[in-house]
């Protein structure tokens, strides 16, 4: 991983031959924001062999909770950056080959959908102002890029067996013919799981949380004209988990397809269309104080969701010193949750349907000018948004008149955003940069219309939520000693206006609007727009390559403060939930041919579990390790260890019991590659 303004990607071979790249338009770089890059070697050399493990190399990039996608509830895996907090919905935008990846209904990220075997590179731009991408890029953009034939062998496969009867397997194939190529990949993972509750707080009802996950994708790229290529992708995934109690099964499935045409002639352009289909189901249980009996309280048995979108981007030939890019995009997301709730003697008595749609239509222009050692960039965007078809329906299962049958008023509005920045190359090894920006995010249908539960706690939806906006500034310096050593540091100050948060209203027991009964062990909360969250901090990233040795460091300090104003005055001056003040990742690796070894140390400081800062999660320090020993030219044996010393990683509370994540996991396996 390195942090630097970046290196432009050429779309043609130096010899002048026209090649098929499989990429989108090359970014106009270096820019005023440091770019953290995770390359292919690192993606395939983490202890867990999972994407979220690789992303953890970028300090400050986090899911709402510390658990990964083997044990977390998917609804807690919205991603964010720079300490502005989060929830189910992501405040950073994850894209794959230009396609937004967040769940169309709720905004979380389905990490089991991605096999690292299919990725060639990840580029992370921290900070708002991703004007080219519009809604969702509040805290930054995580750009996943599919691997190309020059990065992959014709055939590769890996399989490993690990603790708690776990299996992890991935395979990929690459085919080249004439003016095109195709890639196929698949991944499978399963495990008996661990007990999420720490040993001293467990009761008879607590049990292990198993998981089983599968993903597959197919991608084809072909040249259809001398400077034009067609890129087509289909992908799908299946994810089954449990949360360590009876009646907490989770099922998530998805299928996506995209088509992109990229032109690399005098007028460069990219035209993209995509569709996302999702199906989600989740059960919820409450547990008595002695943790002897888990009782079902909700069955979210079906949540179909659809995302549709398109994007056109054009870069006309203006000159070597000036690059202009302009375009437009449209995105529609929506879905409906179907639920049974209000259980009596183990059986539901009511049903609920809630959902709606959101749409955005935006246009943008991005100008980069390079007068000598200075590079200036300015971009502007305007979006029109619509929130429509919102509905909440509740009825007794025995029939009769509806308890609730509300159609919420349609709303619309306009959001202008922009960015201005500069990068100044003082010398070949030193670049100064700075930027100011504004970004925004539209609430998801899940936030607007769907109540939910986490353990004994219940959160009501709010159909009147306003879009979030972020204003920010940053300044940084990048140092580079050739390709051997890089170091970057960034100071930032952000204000998240109208921040959407789960605000505590009362503690149970009692019946509360929008959620029903909450036990004495739980809290009643509602989604609300707070006044703001102010976040200031610093990020430092560095990498050194000394022969076969690679060292990488990433550190983030964030000091966010809630400015709750009238929405929740009791929260004013507190920290957002689930945001550590310090995060760090350090990797020491050695590789020579197929021989390799490495360790990764990660740290997260204490963080508050709730918005009232009444319960905290202890700091966590973990050590991962990996080693590979070649058996033949094509086959290597691989040993991996996650959290080698079994440090306690606290991730939340179930009643008064502490939940943990990421216990020690040992793996032994084989990795094969056919050149």
TrEMBL record:
- Keyword ATP-binding included in the entry's annotation: no
Entry's PROSITE patterns? TONB_DEPENDENT_REC_3 (PS52016)
In this chain the TonB-dependent receptor plug domain maps to 35-141
Domain TonB-dependent receptor-like beta-barrel, by residue range, is: 252-644
Query: What keywords are assigned to this protein?
Result: Cell outer membrane, Membrane, Receptor, TonB box, Transmembrane, Transmembrane beta strand, Transport
The family assignment reads: Belongs to the TonB-dependent receptor family.
Q: What protein name does the entry list? A: Outer membrane receptor protein involved in Fe transport
Q: Origin organism of this chain?
A: Sphingomonas japonica
